[in-house]
Specification:
four-stranded parallel β-sheet, single chain, five-stranded parallel β-sheet, Rossmann fold, alpha/beta, 379 residues
Amino acid sequence: MKHVTEFRDPALAKALLAEIARLCDQIGATREKPVHIMEICGGHTHAIFRFGLDKLVHEGIEFIHGPGCPVCVLPMSRVDECIEIAEREGVIFTTFGDAMRVPGTRGSLMQAKARGADIRMVYSPLDALEIARRNPEREVVFFGLGFETTTPSTAFAIQAAAREGLKNFSVFCNHITVPEPIRALLGDPHMTLDGFIGPGHVSMVIGTHPYDFIAQEFGKPIVVAGFEPIDLLQSVAMVLRQVAEGRAEVENQYARVVPEHGNPASLAAIADVYERRPSFEWRGLGEIDASGLRIRPDYAGFDAEAKFGVGYGAAGPRHVPEPEGCACGAVMTGRIKPTACPQYGTGCTPETPLGALMVSSEGACAAYWQYGGARGAAA
């Protein structure tokens, strides 16, 4: 625990908060004219509220919550297709627990399970692979979901299935990438962003160079950060220092975990198993070019879209409109805070969610609900 304690040291936190305040004063940041820093990763959003950093930093800092929650950005149509596959005769549908309560137009996977579908929560795609080995007479489908953090593990499972010649295992691939939606946000003339806190776990896989365009093309600083309070405070200070000095660079605060060029074994597995989709739909952002991955033809036998004829493997993706009054898209793109959504805390609660942001472990609405956030001030 000593290692964790060092990253939660009160004296160091106070020193960093003082530096942040000094830099804010130097920049001229105020509540009326704040520095807008987007934390891309939903894990960072939860850490900010869990440790109360939003209340501790200088009033000239405004955290903008980005689209870095892969469950949250999944369009409702893809949840519907999960349920469609899961309800096929002879199918065992496996998924991470995070996705069980995400609503589609026909309810959630948990509700489909209650209706009789064989849906099982797993902790790894390798768990799904083991279920396939033990049930050769059943079709076992794994819900491949997540950013570059979880993409390699799904790739390794597909490679293992191919080596073993398993015919009853497939993946419903919904893996997506981080840089492309950030480019889309930076291209939005209505977005006001001064810098970014970069995702730590994603960067552990892909390294830091995929973010070069943020600094080079858009002139915005980005600092890849860890998840402890000292990590985040230091990263905010590093962003502010760049702003104060008129610099825009990619910096790596999380160097103890994130290598500059990423993880070679993971990147090799991704390149072997997947290729880019021409486009992929993001909830709240619409279709984004080259932002999703699909399984390569060499592994087509493990592609659930092709095997079951759904989604992009069928006639084409179908669009499902958001529930009336639901502002998930505006929250995920940082246009509004969760408490500004008219459904927050009324039509949308953890017990009766309208969107994934309220039930995902990385959702911004879940962070506000669990840790208070601005809920009290808005009430």
